[in-house]
Amino acid sequence: MNFASDNCSGVHRAVMAALASANDGHVASYGNDALTRAAEERVREVLEAPDAAVLFTATGTAANAISLGAAVHPWERIFCNEDAHIETSECAAPEMFTGGAKLTLIPGEGGLIDADALDRAAGFWAGEGLGGGKPGAISITNATEWGRVWMPDMVAEIAAIAQQHKLVLHMDGARFANAVAASGAAPADLTHRAGVDLLSFGGTKNGAMGVEAVVAFDPEFADRLAFTRKRSGHLLSKHRYLAAQFFGLLEGGLWLELARQANDMAAQLAAGLEEVEGARLAHPTEANMVFAVLPVDAHDRARAAGATYFKWSSLDEADQDEVTVRFVCSWNTTGAEVDALLAALRG
Amino acid sequence: MNFASDNCSGVHRAVMAALASANDGHVASYGNDALTRAAEERVREVLEAPDAAVLFTATGTAANAISLGAAVHPWERIFCNEDAHIETSECAAPEMFTGGAKLTLIPGEGGLIDADALDRAAGFWAGEGLGGGKPGAISITNATEWGRVWMPDMVAEIAAIAQQHKLVLHMDGARFANAVAASGAAPADLTHRAGVDLLSFGGTKNGAMGVEAVVAFDPEFADRLAFTRKRSGHLLSKHRYLAAQFFGLLEGGLWLELARQANDMAAQLAAGLEEVEGARLAHPTEANMVFAVLPVDAHDRARAAGATYFKWSSLDEADQDEVTVRFVCSWNTTGAEVDALLAALRG
Amino acid sequence: MNFASDNCSGVHRAVMAALASANDGHVASYGNDALTRAAEERVREVLEAPDAAVLFTATGTAANAISLGAAVHPWERIFCNEDAHIETSECAAPEMFTGGAKLTLIPGEGGLIDADALDRAAGFWAGEGLGGGKPGAISITNATEWGRVWMPDMVAEIAAIAQQHKLVLHMDGARFANAVAASGAAPADLTHRAGVDLLSFGGTKNGAMGVEAVVAFDPEFADRLAFTRKRSGHLLSKHRYLAAQFFGLLEGGLWLELARQANDMAAQLAAGLEEVEGARLAHPTEANMVFAVLPVDAHDRARAAGATYFKWSSLDEADQDEVTVRFVCSWNTTGAEVDALLAALRG
Amino acid sequence: MNFASDNCSGVHRAVMAALASANDGHVASYGNDALTRAAEERVREVLEAPDAAVLFTATGTAANAISLGAAVHPWERIFCNEDAHIETSECAAPEMFTGGAKLTLIPGEGGLIDADALDRAAGFWAGEGLGGGKPGAISITNATEWGRVWMPDMVAEIAAIAQQHKLVLHMDGARFANAVAASGAAPADLTHRAGVDLLSFGGTKNGAMGVEAVVAFDPEFADRLAFTRKRSGHLLSKHRYLAAQFFGLLEGGLWLELARQANDMAAQLAAGLEEVEGARLAHPTEANMVFAVLPVDAHDRARAAGATYFKWSSLDEADQDEVTVRFVCSWNTTGAEVDALLAALRG
Questions:
Q1: CA of B229, closest CA in chain C: separation in Å?
Q2: Closest chain A residue to C235 measured between Cα atoms?
Q3: Which H or E element spans position D255?
C-alpha cells in the first residue's frame, strides 16, 4: 500500500528489457548512437512533430531547468502557478540555469493558472521598464502538482496570452503521460497544436528508471538546449541507456497503458473516499493523484494498516482535526491495494 | 513643482563642496586613501558601530545586491515584502549577485512585512527539504516603498523571527535618512541594536550625487562583501569621490536636516490633501512620500499646472474615475512648491 | 576493435544484475532508501573514510562541477592542468556551478601539474588583491587525460601546496579505478591520506551505466554538496538505481578487476607498438589509455581494418606525415582485439 | 612625483565645471534626461557612429563586463591576451556578467594578441564540439596593459579572424584616449571601421571622476546591454552626472589634449631612461605607461626621493638585482615631475 509517489515505484519490465537489449557491443557515446537517433524519432512520431528537437536527460528538474534556460534571458520573468514544482521543489534550479531569472507566481485553482491574472501580470511587468524585468515565459504543469489536467482548449487560452505578450510557453510534463491519458487528446493537440513551445516529457514517473525528454517544437531552440544540457552535466556519456528507456516506454503504446492504470486507480480511490466518513477531496481527481482531507482517525487507521503516503502541508494550513494528504497512484498500483487502503480508511 | 522622485533632485551644495575639496593631488585608488578611511569611520560613528565593515558603492541596487550576495547561498530564499524594491525595480539584481537565490514574497501593509506571515513562511520552507530551498535572509525597506517607517520595536519583532530561523536580516535603507528622521530613533536603535545585520545606507536620494554605503554590523561579512563589490564592477577607482559625498552629507548632521525637510514637506502635503475634495491617502504618510488617490479632475489640474509626479499603478488596479499617484518630496522641496501643488489640486 | 572510449563500452553484467535486483517493490525516493545508504557505506569502506559524505550522480561532469561548486566562492581561482577535462571538455560546467569562478591553467607533462609552477601561480594570485581573485582550489585528474597516474607521494606534494595556500584539493577520478589499479596503492593512500579533500569517484567508465560518487572526506562539505546537487537537477528520484550500480561495481572488488583488465590491455598495446615501424608513444602508458604518434600509413591500415579510435589533435599540432591518436582500453577490451589492432598497424 | 596610476590623479577642472553646471533643478532620472541624450550624441559624433548605442557606467570593469555579457552566451569562449585586465584584474567580473563564460588566454607581446595563435585557438575550439564550448568573442585592450597601441591595421587583422569565426570583437578602451592620441587615427578608424563591435570608452583615467561609455556599433546589442547594466546595478539614478563628465571631457577635444599630455610625458620619461645607467625598457612606450627594468639602486633612489609607482611583478619573475616597474603618466603629470624622477633615478 505505497501511495507516497510515483517515484517510489520500480521500473517496468519492458524498460528493463530495453536496457538489456541496448547492452550489446561498443557504440558511440554522448548521444551519437543509432538507438538515440531512433528514440528521438519515436518521440517526434508520438508528438506528430517531425521537426522538433528532442534531448534526453535523467531528471525532471533537469528537463525543466534546461528548457527554461533556453527560453529566457536572465532579466526576464517566468510566470507559473504559485504551487508549481519549479517554484516549490527544485531548489532554485530554474534560477541557476537561466542565470537568475525570476519566477513570478500566479494564482489558479489546483495548480492551474488563472488566465486573467496571468494576462494582467504580463501586462503589468511589460510596463515596468528595465527595473521590472521583462516578461519572458510561462510554465504550466500537466498534469498539475494537484492532479488537475490541462485540456487542449485550456492550454490554447494560455498560449494566446503567451503570443500576445511574446512569451515562450513551456509545459512541465513530469506526468505528461497521465495528462494525455486523462484528456483523451492527442499528444500533439495537448502541446504544439495548442501553442506549447517547449515540453518536458516525463518518463521516470511513468515506469522508466530515470529519463525525461526535452522537446522543442521550434528547432531554433536546439542549440541553446544542447549547450545548456552539456554545461549542466546532463549529457550522459553512455547515452544509449537513456534512449532505451524511452524506446521501451513508447513501444506499443505502453506509456499510455501504464498511465491509464495509474489514473484508473486514482479514480477508484477517489470514488471510494466518498464512503469514508468525514473525508472529502481537496481537488478534483483528474489524473493519478488524489488529494484528500481526512479525519485524523481515518488517517491513523490507514497508517496503522501500513499505508504509505504524505501529509501535504501548505502555507495556509491551520491545525485541525483533519489532515490533508496526497495519495499517488502509479503504473503498478493495483486495485487490491486501493481496496485495502479504502478499507483501512473506512475502519 | 517636481514630485517625481528624490532621484530627480540635484546635489546639495555641501556635497559639491566636499567633492571639490577632495579634488586635490594624487591619492591612492580603489579605496586605499585617507578620505575613504575617514568617511568609513564617520559612518561607523553615526551608527555607533565601531566594528562594522563599511563599503561605498554608487547605486542603491548595487548596495542591496552586494549585501544579499554576501548574505545567502544560491539555494537559499530571501523573504521580502511583495512590493519590495528588490523584487519590483532591480531587474533581478539580487538573483544575479546571489547566483540565483529566490525572493519569496510576504504580504504586509504599505511595504511592511506581516510578522506572522513571515514566521509561517520561514517555518514552512525550512520544512520542505532540499527541494524547497533553505530560508536564508529577510530584507526590509526603511522607509518602505510606500512611505511607511519601521520603528525600532517593529524591526526587533522581525529580527526575533530572523534569529529563530537563523536568517540574516538586511535593511534596504535607500531612504534610511528619512526613516531615522521620521522615527526620531538613534540610527543604532533602528539597525544593529534592533537586530539588523546588513544595511544599505542611502546617500543618493538624501542629497548626494551617487553614493550608498553597505554596512555589515558583523565584520565576518567583510570579505564576501569586498569580493562581491569588486567582481560586480562596483569598486570605483577614484574612490575618494564616493567617500567625499558621504563625508559631506554626514558633516554636522546635514543628512538628517535634509531628510527632515523632505519629511516635513510630505507631511504638509498630506495634511493639505484633506482639503482636496475627493482625495484621500492610500497609505499613512510617515516619511517623504505621499501616496494618494485623486479624483481625475484634480489630477488633470495639477498636471496642467506643471506638476510632475508619477501615477502609481499596481497589479490590482481597476480603471476608475480616480488615479493613484505618488508624490515624493526631496531635500530641496520647498513649502511654496507644496502650496502650489495643493492649490492646483484644489482647483 | 573499438578503442574510441571507455564510454563506448556497455555495462558489466554484474551491474545489470544489481539493477535487476534493485527493481523490487516501492522504496523511498531521492536517496532516502536502504540501498543508497548501503552503497554510500560501501564507498566509505573502500576508501577507509568512515566520516566521508558520499553523493551519487549520473555523470562525471556533474560530479566535478558539484564538487568545485562546493569548494570555492565565485571570486576564487581553481588551478588545474591546461588539458584538464574540466577546462577542455565540460562546456564551462565548473564556471556554471561555482557562479563564475575562474580556471587558471598550469602546465605539466601528460596532464600532471608542475608543482613549482603551481606554487608560483598560487603565490602570485594571492598577492594580486581583490582584482586578481583569490586562490581557492586545485583540481587534479587521476588517471590524467593523457593516461598518466598520480602516485600517493605526487598527490602529497600537491596537497602540501594546497595546505600552504589554504586551497581545497579536488581529484577528478573519472578513471579512479584505473589509477588505483595502476598505482597499487590503497584508495585511501591515493586520496585523503595524501591530502585530497574532494573526490569524483567514477563508475561509468569502469563498467557502470552512469554513476559517479562525489566524496567529501571532510563532512563539512556535505550541505553545500547536497544543495548544489539538488539545484543542478542531479539528485535522481529513483535513486536506488544509482546506488545499485555502485554496489555492483564494488562487490567483491570487481571495480579493480575491471580496471586491471583495461590497464593490462593498454600495457599490451603500448608494448606492441614498439614493433610498429615509425610509431612511438606520446606519453608513458600508465593506465588504460595509449597515446601514440603513428605513421599515416599505419593509421590508414588500422582504420581500413575497422579499428575505431580518435585522432587526438592539440593546439600545437602541425600537419605532418604522422598522426597522433588515442587508444582507450576498457573493462571489456580483449587481448584478441589488441592483437588485431597491432597486426593491422604493423601491416 | 606620483606615477602610480592614472586612477590616482584627480578630476580635470573642466569636468568639475560640467558637474556644477549639471546641478541645476530637477531632471528625469535613470538617463531619461536631456543632458544624457546630448552626451550620448556627442559620443556618437566623436566616433562617427550615428547609429551606435551608448550607455554610460561608472567603472571600467562594469563597461567591460556589461559589454561581454551582451556579447556571448555562458557556454562560449572569450579570447584575450594572457595579461588582459579582464583576466588579471577584474575578479572574474566577465564570468559573473556572462553567466560563466570562459576566458581563453592567447599570447602576444606587450598585451597585444598574436594573430596566428588566435586563429589557431578559435579554429581548435570550434572543432571541439559541445564539451569545448563555442568560440564567442575576442577582447583586445587599447592601449594595452603594457602600454602598447593597436593601430587600425592591427585591429583589422584581428577583426578578420573574428569575422571568419563569427566572433564578436570587443575593445577595452580604459585608455582609449591615449590610444587615439598615440595612433593619430580617427576614433572611427580605430574601432568600427576596423571591425570593432563593442567598445568600452574610458573617461575615468582620462580626467573624469568616474565614467565610461559602453558603445555598441551595432544597435542590435542595445537591449541586452540595457538590461545587463540595470540588473548589475550600474544604471545610476542621478544619471546626468555621468553624462556631464563625458560632456566635459569631449568638449573642444579636451579628452585628446589630456591624453596627449600623458603620452608626451611618458615619451619624455622613456627617453630619459636611456641615460639611467643599467635601466632599460621592458616594452616599447607607445601610450602613457612606461615599463622599465631598473637597477635596484636606481629604484631605491627614486623611492627615497618620494616617487610613487608600482613594482610590476609577473608570474615568470626571478629574484634579481633588477626591479621591473611601471610608471604611469596622467593628464596632470608635468615635465618637472618627469625630470625630478629621472634625476632621482640617475642619482
A1: 9
A2: A59
A3: helix D254-273
